[in-house]
Amino acid sequence: MIQILKESGGTGSGRQKSILRRLLILAAAVFLFEILIGNYSSVRSLFYRKTDLTDRMKLTWGGDGEAEEDSEKLTLEIDGLDMRIDNLYFDLDVPENEVVSIEISLVDEGNRYPYPLPVMEAAGRYPSSFHTNLYPYGKVHSLIIEMEPAEGGGLVLSEDVPAGGGMENETRTEQGGFVLRGIEANVRRPFDFVIPRMLLLFGAGAFWIFSGEKSGIYRVRFNPKSRRQNLVTAGCLGLFVLIGLVLVLSNRACVESPWGHHQQYRQLAAAILDGHVWVGQQPELMELENPYDTSYLLSNNIPYLADYAYYEGKYYVYFGIVPELLFYLPCLALTGKAFPNFLAVWFCFAGFVVSVFGLYREAVKRWFPRIPYVFYLMAAGVTLTFGSFIYLAARPDLYHVPLMAANMFTAAGIWLWLCGLNREKKRLWLLFAGSLCMALVAGCRPQMLAFSILALPLFGRRIFGEKRFREAAALLIPYAAVAAGIMGYNALRFSSPIDFGAAYSLTNNDMTHRGTNLSRILYGIYAFFFQPPHYEGAFPFLVSNDLQHTYMGKMVSEFLYGGILASQTVCWCLALLPVCRRRIIGWKNGGGRELWWIFLCAVTAPLIIGGFDANAAGILQRYTADAAFGVALASCLMMLWLFGSAQGMAQRVGLVFLRAALLQHALYAFLIVFACGDSVNLKNYGRILYYGAKRLFQM
Description:
five-stranded mixed sheet; six-stranded antiparallel sheet
């Protein structure tokens, strides 16, 4: 960033001194915040006088009639306290990757009967989580505390707990790998400086300072030949690839992938090497009236392979064939080992990162050559941190492989198309490669072929007006070749070249009878794009939406973390499209008309895809990734156009909105990593990272 400031010229030295001074003030403010707010509980407890409650505990293993040796729950009762209790400390020995759930109920001066408090969670990696504040009504008369492992495991009553208080006859009870040594009240909590919290606060403040109008970064124009800018770009690109790697490795469940139906690509690779494309046989299901009614199969204990395509007695993989040919088949053929799903997601995410940076580089060269360099970085960063893509990377399972691959090929295709348009040399080869990437989308997520309509504004005039038939051939031949291969593969599996097999999936939704319904389509478009996100006041804050509808039929839905447009404020600039139509069309040397139709196509394609997904499959969070790229592209191009044309007060107001929107965008991306709408989340399978993030918001 300092290098960019140096390029801005003018009073750079004075500006740098001003910024450094503000950064020092920010660092001091963050440090004071960490002491007074981040460690509020420690400051509050400075003059507390500790009381050991261990001798007063009455311990009971289990409850509700459970046998002691079979129970994992420990209940503690402490009566006759009659004292003010402002905090509690649980002296626990908990393995690093384990969590103990603690539910406290108490009787105080304002309540004659016990009332429960929110469940606290003691994470082994973070001893500060063994403390909790209490806010009773006056003095506390009694406590009832229930402790149990959050996921498996158990507790061990330590041998060194002093006898007494009903504990005389207790023996060391082994229920798992945890040890409870005692409980103390009104302890002085040690100061706990959370360095990541301080860095995040400083980073957010530094972003606000550096992104200010007077910082100088907006004076540095985009220059594709600048060595400094290219080095900064390469660094940002590498950072996003690294972030993707951290995300895919964070979820232990997806890395280990213990579920049988998540091995479908591996099974298909083995089948292809054996000379066929089916992965299993069960002809007896064909004797049923409807083998796709999985509720009937379950109720009658009829075994079947869930989430496989079943057709004429055989099981097939209906997921796109391209990731299979790209990763799984070569790996099995060359090494004899299965290619892991999480690595496939990461490789595709890395390819997506490279393609997005390349796409906006060519877009800026074509339409916004005088835009400040920082807006190019913002456009790439915003696209890569859309919640839909972060969600895919943070839960890298089988379902997300074709989704991430389709987005990678879409971004790469548009990038290569723009490369061809911006160059004279090797133009035909670049257009051919771009169309090949766009055509390969059909072998990942066929519905995302809708983004191919972007070819119309890019090449329509050149082909139909200027009769460039060689370019037309370069654009169309890859589509024809890929279509021939995929249609042959479809015919081999499902006896029809245009049948991709998704309708034959054995899932909770019989898609062979689903049909088409406008009400379902319209509600799906609302949910995918306009459903407001649901936030709560406790970590992880972002909560899955309980979708409510009046559709009098089967509306297949799981959960959403808010619609694409509603959840990310950087998209709201698209509301200005109708107002700015004439100015966009008149933008610089006739390129505005092309840009206007790019906007329309980039917005229309996601609506088509969202309606298709809602009608044909259902409303699921991962399906937002089918449509998100078009919204991201349109939003970022609109942002580039607005700041390329705005001046004076409009630019200053727009810049304030943009800075706030980018912070909200980053926060949403952060929260969606830790959201717990599905069972395969970091709270269950990435505890160190999850409870480390939770610690950022605890005082």
